[in-house]
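stage 2 :: seqdesign
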């Protein structure tokens, strides 16, 4: 009886990586140097962050005002139910 050997490409890759990692290792490396303190951020980035935070605060305040206004318009004793999950 004659057998035919079938080789696996992915098995070969794993064997090469295991037996010679210096040559066949995965070479994905990312060096990110990002300031971790607020004072170290550039002023343009600080301004952008503050602008985004202010916009978010205004949106949340407007949403809260709309909810309060909707509750004022309900007849006495009725309540609204938040179905959005927020």
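stage 2 :: out
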């Amino acid at each position: 009886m004659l057998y035919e050997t079938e080789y696996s490409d992915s098995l070969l890759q794993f064997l090469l990586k295991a037996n010679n990692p210096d040559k066949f290792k995965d070479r994905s490396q990312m060096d990110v140097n990002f300031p971790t303190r607020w004072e170290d951020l550039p002023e343009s980035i600080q301004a952008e962050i503050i602008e985004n935070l202010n916009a978010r605060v205004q949106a949340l305040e407007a949403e809260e005002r709309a909810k309060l206004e909707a509750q004022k318009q309900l007849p006495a004793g009725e309540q609204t139910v938040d179905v959005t999950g927020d």
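stage 3 :: structure notes
- The chain has three helices and no strands.
- Residues 43-72 form the longest helix (30 residues).
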